[in-house]
Amino acid sequence: MLKVKKQMNKKIGVKILATGSYFPKKVLTNADLEKIVDTSDEWISTRTGIKERHISENNEPTSELAYKASLEAIKTAQIKNEDIDLIIVATVTPDMLFPSTACFLQTKLGLNSAPAFDLSAACSGFIYALATAKAYIESGLYKTVLIAGSEELSKFTDWTDRNTCVLFGDAAGAMILTASEENDDVLSVCLGADGSYSELLNMPAGGTVNPATVETVKGKLHTIKMAGKEVFKVAVTKMGIAAEKALVLAGKKPEEITLYIPHQANMRIIEAVAKKVGVTMDKVFVNIHKTGNTSSATTITALDEAIKTGKLKKGDLVELVAFGGGFTWGAAVIRI
Ligand code: COA
């Protein structure tokens, strides 16, 4: 019989090295929107909590936002670009259908061999990317992983549809994670999806179901379509369930979490989820008033802001929770 010396493998932990974020310079206020569609600052503020959002320039693609957020994270992490073994970009607003936005980002970072791919999970994308990075690091396949949530929803918005155009904004956030023997900063992740809801939130054309034609362009089928009320209800339910499950998986009680960072889609959704989980709003991070819904960029840019503004200190526990098209949802408990 073949004698195999059994080696006790030490579990590989995941250390969060740094975060970064980037918002395009141009700001579009609710007052600006009043000049474009039949809406009012009062309606947008009370129904969504949004006051303004950032809009990217035409010559500033999604990979450029991801690049600027990544550079900040790399600088804070005090690593070299070459230390990155894997790049994942969560986005549903890529530079092109292919190559991936992650490949464009890789080139901008001056790298030419690190594997790079996009991840499509809409507004839950960053939490899916976090779970993926954790799995790659723990498996021993890659050591240092750059993940980004980068979106330019403004370029897929129907600016004549007041139901959607007031909601979205552009941004990117990035995080660097590395293998560690001492740290294990991603305590739990909980992901979910239900594709039977695809009709309620989607971008109908440009893929193989409706390839681009003059008619699809005329019909504005290359822009976001959403049944807001229906999405709202499922979002509250699924985010509540995911948040509770991730806490259980992490073995933590709600009161042990310093800060909850929910997806910033609607202030009323955030408040309803907090109520469901039994958390008071003083423990919930909100920046939707100045960002709008930036899809996969919301949780990571909010986390970055909470760290930069001193709302979080080393050792604090944070829960991220998100929901998006698909439907997809996810939550994660992490240590700063
Ligand atoms: N300005 C003024 N009025 C508007 C408006 C706007 N920008 N958008 C919609 N309205 C009107 C509607 O036409 C409707 O008028 P009617 O009653 O005469 O038909 C009325 O306001 C109410 O619309 P309704 O859709 O019921 O509003 P709501 O309270 O559900 O809020 C959303 C709409 C989109 C803000 C809300 O449903 C939402 O946030 N949904 C989820 C969004 C989300 O999470 N999306 C992404 C997940 S990642």
From TrEMBL:
Q: Which Gene3D superfamilies match?
A: 3.40.47.10
Q: Which reaction does it catalyse?
A: malonyl-[ACP] + acetyl-CoA + H(+) = 3-oxobutanoyl-[ACP] + CO2 + CoA
Q: Which residues form the active site?
A: 123, 263, 293
Task: Name a single GO biological process.
Answer: fatty acid biosynthetic process
- Tell me the pathway: Lipid metabolism; fatty acid biosynthesis
Can you give the residue ranges of the Beta-ketoacyl-[acyl-carrier-protein] synthase III N-terminal domain? 117-195
The transmembrane residues are: none
Q: Where in the cell is it found?
A: Cytoplasm
Q: Per UniProt, which keywords does this protein have?
A: Acyltransferase, Cytoplasm, Fatty acid biosynthesis, Fatty acid metabolism, Lipid biosynthesis, Lipid metabolism, Multifunctional enzyme, Transferase
The reply on keyword Transferase is: yes
Instruction: Indicate the segments forming the Beta-ketoacyl-[acyl-carrier-protein] synthase III C-terminal domain, all copies.
Output: 250-336
Question: Which GO terms of the cellular component aspect does the record hold?
Answer: cytoplasm
Q: Name one GO molecular function term.
A: 3-oxoacyl-[acyl-carrier-protein] synthase activity
According to its UniProt record, this protein's enzyme class is transferase
Predominant location category: cytoplasm
Q: Which SUPFAM superfamilies match?
A: Thiolase-like
Tell me its EC number(s), please: 2.3.1.180
* Residue numbers spanned by region ACP-binding: 264-268
Stated role:
Catalyzes the condensation reaction of fatty acid synthesis by the addition to an acyl acceptor of two carbons from malonyl-ACP. Catalyzes the first condensation reaction which initiates fatty acid synthesis and may therefore play a role in governing the total rate of fatty acid production. Possesses both acetoacetyl-ACP synthase and acetyl transacylase activities. Its substrate specificity determines the biosynthesis of branched-chain and/or straight-chain of fatty acids.
Q: How does it assemble?
A: Homodimer.
The entry sums up its family as follows: Belongs to the thiolase-like superfamily. FabH family.
Q: What is this protein called?
A: Beta-ketoacyl-[acyl-carrier-protein] synthase III
